[in-house]
Amino acid sequence: MASTLKNIMLLGGAGTLGSPIIKALLTAGTFNITVLSRPTSNSTFPSDVKRLTSDFTRTSLVESFKGQDAVIDLVAQSSLEDRKKVINAAVDAGVKRFIPSEFSGNMDNKANVSIIAMFADRVAVRDYAKVKAAANPNFSYTTVSNGPFYDWAIKNAFIGFNLQTHTATIYDDGNQPFSTTTLSSVSKAVVGILSKPAKTANKSIYVASFTPTQNEILSVLEETTGKKWTVKKVSTVDAKTQGFEALGKGDMSGFVGILMASTYGPGNGNDFSKNAILSNNLLRLPEEDLKTVTKALVEGNEV
């Protein structure tokens, strides 16, 4: 699959990852960018980005996808059948490359995938894309695994560290390495994938800005803030159990505990340096340093 990928369409381009990807694509200067959204969307985009609307029926998707070389699905919440519909429409429209809405942890690790049905659905999307690629030589896919978005997670107290209260939730002993990537590097990885279609076709791509432990992050945060943080210890087993109990009561915050059990749980393969082959060099990602990036975030700067 060595064809040039120039016309790029994003689905859901207004979210957490959409804006950084659009910025990276514009910076590259070699792509024609289109965002596909629903007619009710009020999202705005840079003037160099074309916006189309669709009711997301298969017929509408096929028509919208025509002329596009690659489709990047960034819709966070969607059913398995809807995601299959997008893939079918991409094949029918002659799209060359499809990047599914994954951008998460290790979906090649069976223990990790078994944690929650959402992960199983992601694997099912992968498998469906593989089948379609095998049956249609002009169609290909690439999945991206990057772990938590480090800068977003630190800003939003998502991985256990709260910059406002200087409190930390440490899971298990805090010494489990996990791979994590800044939004900027994830976005540059997408550009790298689209720029090297032959080398990224029908592959699971893993990237990481760094692979720290929670204790290493805590040490850097205490050093950069000049404060001793209050630490709460939680086991990943309890986080998972309590997370599912919360979901059972309709409390969607239970997802956080489940995702932390995935990220920090031993045996889940989320240390990409040991459990995957990193493509940082292939995609020409910049080297990043935990301390430098964290210091910038503490100071309120973008990374």
Describe, in plain words, how this protein is organized in 3D.
It is a single chain. With 303 residues, the protein is α/β, with parallel strands linked by helices. Helices cover 42% and strands 15% of the residues. The strands form two sheets. Strands 3-2-1-4-5-6-9 form a seven-stranded parallel β-sheet, with helices on both faces. It has a three-stranded mixed β-sheet with strand order 7-8-10. Helix 2 (58-65) crosses helix 3 (80-93), helix 3 runs parallel beside helix 5 (117-135) and helix 10 (236-248) runs antiparallel to helix 11. The relative contact order is 0.14.
Fraction of residues in H or I helices: 40-55%
Tally the helices: what do you get? 13
Basic shape: globular
> Runs with pLDDT <50, length 5+?
none
Strand order of the largest sheet: 3-2-1-4-5-6-9
Average predicted confidence as pLDDT? 96
**How many E-type strands?**
10
Strand content: 5-15%
What is the SS-derived class? alpha/beta
* Radius of gyration over C-alpha positions, nearest whole angstrom: 19 Å
Biggest sheet, in brief? 7 strands, parallel
Distance between the termini: 33 Å
**What is the element string, with H for helices and E for strands?**
EHEEHEHEHHEHEEHHEHEHHHH
